[in-house]
Write a structure and sequence with these properties.
The protein is an alpha/beta fold. It contains 17 helices and nine strands.
Length: 362
């Protein structure tokens, strides 16, 4: 009996030791936003197990992190508004640059743009990025609105154009965060404006096209564009490019194109960050540094068709992606893009109230 007890004690100690030695990283990312091969490769090369969860809204991510004890080690918030709010709330760990040698490989100009949300780039590294513009069905626009411009927000925001396209379907991102700055820019106002008169002008511009909007879409309009269910969408560039790829693969004759309006398109950055109470911060750093490898990041871009900020990855990106100006805009086009800074709480609430009125059609 005594021997059995001793054996049991030894087995318990061994099991506890094995559990203590297990290396894990808990990752929380957008849906369909990574190359599964990258996860498998990281696990094989490091021996660290990846537990991977997904979300489809920034509100879900932000709520979990601000509540604390989320259990996640790596998260991927969008620079505005979630990432900047998490930075200001002290909810993120500063990145240990000594453990991230590949951080220096990120495009310095893009990191400087992100510094509006993260002064000094202390808390995040760019994962993927894109712009906010218009996706459209080329054939349907040619048939219904042949004179409408293909280089301007006028395609959507001039009521006469929206009216022509209403019967083939128009959707807007269900996000005041993304739509309001774009309309402010179109109207010649500052995208960061908190002036009540400027917000009223945005509301009037959107109400003018509201009768022609079929739906407000929370997670993008990839499937609707790819299938030909709609013909115009205010959406993220990556979603539109994915829709174009799926339409080609389906072979149904649907041609989807992306338009970055000449008046200016908002840049959007998704950031790799570590929650302040991450249970495995060292494994988190190992995961981030692995993802920033040029070959790994090229594989992610090739899979999800969003551009990355690792400059050395470009030669390994598929030519059809690398040479697509909708994905990797030329410098002249990028010069027209803009970024937004944090919006004060009262201004954010005013935008939310306006958005609720707009969706209700009032």
């Amino acid at each position: 009996m005594r021997l059995n007890r001793m054996l049991l004690a030894v087995l318990c100690l061994c099991a506890a030791g094995a559990a203590a030695q297990e290396r894990v990283v808990n990752v929380y990312n957008w849906t369909d936003y990574i190359d599964p091969y990258a996860i498998d490769r990281f696990q094989r090369e490091t021996g660290i197990t990846v537990r991977y969860d997904v979300y489809d809204s920034l509100e879900t991510l932000e709520g979990k992190l601000l509540a604390g004890r989320s259990g996640y080690d790596v998260v991927v918030p969008t620079s505005e508004p979630t990432f900047s709010r998490l930075v200001r709330a002290g909810a993120l760990l500063p990145l240990d640059r000594t453990r991230l040698p590949r951080l220096s490989g990120l495009d310095a100009a893009l990191m400087q743009r992100v510094a509006m949300s993260d002064p000094g780039n202390r808390f995040g590294a760019i994962y993927l990025w894109g712009s906010i513009g218009l996706g459209y069905n080329a054939a349907k626009l040619a048939a219904l609105a042949p004179q409408a411009p293909r280089d301007s927000w006028d395609l959507l925001l001039r009521p006469e154009n929206a009216r022509l396209l209403a019967r083939c379907g128009i959707t807007l991102l269900d996000s005041a965060i993304d739509v309001v700055p774009s309309v402010l820019k179109y109207l010649g106002r500052s995208p960061d404006s908190t002036d009540a008169a400027d917000l009223a002008a945005v509301e009037q511009a959107l109400l003018a096209i509201r009768p022609y909007v079929r739906a407000f879409v929370g997670a993008g309009a990839v499937e609707q564009l790819a299938s030909g269910e709609i013909c115009l969408a205010l959406d993220y560039s990556g979603d539109v490019i994915q829709a174009a790829s799926r339409a080609r693969e389906a072979g149904g004759g649907v041609e989807v194109r992306y338009l970055a309006p000449k008046e200016g398109a908002q840049l959007s950055f998704d950031m790799l960050a570590i929650p302040k109470d991450a249970p495995h911060p060292q494994e988190a750093l190992a995961f981030i540094d692995f993802v920033l490898r040029p070959d790994v990041m090229a594989g992610i871009t090739n899979r999800v068709r969003y551009p990355n900020a690792v400059t050395a990855s470009l030669p390994m990106v598929s030519p059809d992606i690398r040479d697509d100006p909708g994905i990797y805009p030329p410098e002249a086009m990028r010069a027209m893009f803009f970024t937004v800074g944090p919006v004060p709480p009262e201004a954010a609430r005013a935008r939310s109230r306006m958005w609720a009125r707009l969706k209700a059609g009032r």
